[in-house]
Write a structure and sequence with these properties.
alpha+beta; signal; 11 helices; isomerase activity; globular; 5-stranded mixed sheet
């Protein structure tokens, strides 16, 4: 598929579902999450094929769900700092099942999610690391440049050109991902990113010390 056509298609998918901000908005409020559009998306679009990527023991006593955008600077800061300590102390030790749910502020965040998921479970979090580590550079330029930047992450993860292109041009997957995000964000009362649902209770962004206190209280 022509790359310019890809940009147009995914942009229309995004705008049609009302899920996106203008790129560069400094706010971290979650756009487009209302009862009306979330219910419409859930009713009209099949999201059964969208999986929740997670790290840790599936049967861990504590489940944490992070809602984060790939274009959100605060999400990058959490990922590069507090998350690493949480992974070491709680995820890798079998205490926490950590689910990552993508929030789409813009079409670029959606494209990033489509590339990350392209690698399947084995590659997903490795591509997520690349996306956050390079956030300040891959988000720069026109849409074609940004799409090419994301393609490079897929290649670094060992994906071939045909596989990456198939993922990026999957319009049905784009719709399903957006609907899945809207439905879950509405259900969990997500108003900003990053936000966290710890054993069913929603919390806003916090330091590692505050995270540790909440996790220990659940153990």
């Amino acid at each position: 598929m022509n790359r310019n056509l890809l940009i147009a298609i995914v942009g229309v998918v995004a705008i049609g579902l009302g899920a996106f901000f203008v790129m560069g908005n400094s706010s971290n409020a979650v756009p487009g999450v209302t009862a009306v559009n979330a219910q419409t998306a859930a009713a009209d679009i099949d999201t059964s094929g969208v999986m929740d990527p997670f790290l840790g023991d599936a049967d861990a006593p504590v489940t944490v769900i992070e809602y984060a955008s790939f274009t959100c600077p605060h999400c990058r800061t959490f990922h590069e700092n507090a998350f690493k300590q949480i992974k070491k102390d709680y995820i890798d030790t079998g205490k926490v099942k950590f689910i990552f749910r993508e929030v789409y502020f813009d079409r670029y965040g959606l494209w990033a999610g489509m590339v990350a998921r392209c690698g399947g479970g084995d590659r997903y979090f490795g591509i997520v690391d690349l996306i956050y580590e390079n956030q300040q550079t891959w988000t720069q330029g026109d849409p074609s440049t940004i799409a090419n930047n994301l393609r490079k992450f897929g290649k670094q993860a060992g994906l071939d050109d045909a596989t990456i292109e198939a993922c990026l041009t999957d319009g049905e997957k784009a719709q399903a991902l957006t609907a899945f995000y809207q439905k879950n964000a509405q259900q969990d009362g997500i108003q900003s990113t990053p936000s966290f649902v710890i054993n069913g209770t929603t919390h806003s962004n916090m330091s590692y010390a505050d995270f540790q206190r909440l996790l220990d209280a659940e153990l």
